[in-house]
Design brief:
The complex is a heterodimer. Chain A is mostly helical. Chain A contains eleven helices and four strands; from the N terminus they run ααβαααβββαααααα. The longest helix of chain A has 29 residues, at 229-257. Chain B has one helix spanning 5-12. The chains are: A mainly alpha, B mainly alpha.
Chain lengths: 275, 20
């Protein structure tokens, strides 16, 4: 009966993951391997293809007021602003997912905020890996593909922004998790009882213990040939914290040195006093 | 609470658009 409860929990998390996130790993992998039957994504590999691509690839955030003034800014700044808007959208999606985790909305409201503040970037970089291969990353809901070399060719410090995420994604993708595994994994990340400033740790740890059991069983059932997958995946949580720390340091540097650039208020809120 | 007002709002409202 306990196993049945854990399976039901994993199923519930997978369902809300499908409802909360716009582009799943299954869809992204189909696009990346050309198996969708739809047209292939537009490849952005240099400044020319970036300019051409802008006509084909629609950006949701173009409808956001205040974006008009961005058009006169340097390419690096414009690209970064689009990344930011996608991140803000991702925070909204992750919040919706978090609220669907059984027990989450019963936690102290300030603790919910703290869990999201510390968890969202770790979740963003785990799910971003689904959109990446060693050569590039899908953008704009899979309509475009931006190459890793192009991102590396941007001027400093923008060229340093994505490379650590590619390095992580290559290792993370070798674990071959699918969306149903990722759903439980990101619930485990969100419910981390060791985030700084939590008021009431015990109920968070209790919820996470249950999620960890659900994750262990999920991996056993879904990957019977990979006996150490659970342990390997838990190790990735340490790598994620390192990536987030470096990411936040880079954003703080950008905020100081790139005076043309506005950091979105939601991202400022999340980054402030983070690490 | 003031420090994280957008996060609070996201948690308390369902799918509210994030304004700038």
């Amino acid at each position: 009966p306990e196993c049945a409860d854990l399976r039901a929990l994993a199923k519930h998390l997978y369902d809300s993951y499908l409802k909360s996130f716009s582009l799943t790993k299954a869809k992204a992998r189909a696009i990346l391997t050309g198996k969708t039957g739809e047209k292939a994504p537009f490849v952005i590999y240099d400044m020319n293809s970036l300019m051409t691509g802008q006509q084909f690839v629609s950006y949701k955030q173009n409808s956001v007021p205040g974006q008009g003034q961005e058009q006169n800014k340097e390419v690096e700044i414009q690209l970064f602003q689009r990344c930011q808007f996608r991140s803000v959208e991702a925070v909204r999606e992750i919040t919706e997912f978090a609220k669907s985790i059984p027990g989450f909305i019963g936690l102290d409201l300030n603790d919910q905020v703290t869990l999201l503040k510390y968890g969202v970037h770790e979740v963003i970089f785990s799910t971003l890996a689904s959109l990446m291969n060693k050569d590039g990353v899908l953008i704009s809901d899979g309509q475009g593909f931006m190459t890793r070399e192009f991102l590396k060719s941007l001027r400093k410090p923008f060229c340093e922004l994505m490379e650590p995420k590619f390095e992580f994604s290559v290792k993370f993708n070798s674990l071959e998790l699918d969306d149903s595994d990722l759903a439980v994994f990101i619930a485990v990340i969100i419910l981390s009882g060791d985030r700084p400033g939590l008021v009431n740790v015990k109920p968070i740890e209790d919820l996470q213990d249950n999620m960890l059991q659900a994750l262990e069983l999920q991996l056993k059932m879904n990957h019977p040939d990979a006996p150490h997958l659970f342990a390997k995946l838990l190790q990735k949580m340490t790598d994620l914290r390192q990536i987030v720390t470096e990411h936040v340091q880079l954003l703080q540097l950008l905020k100081k040195t790139e005076l043309e650039m506005n950091i979105h208020p939601l991202l400022q809120e999340i980054m402030k006093d983070l690490y | 609470k003031e420090k994280h007002k957008i996060l609070h709002r996201l948690l308390q409202n369902s799918s509210s658009p994030v304004d700038l």
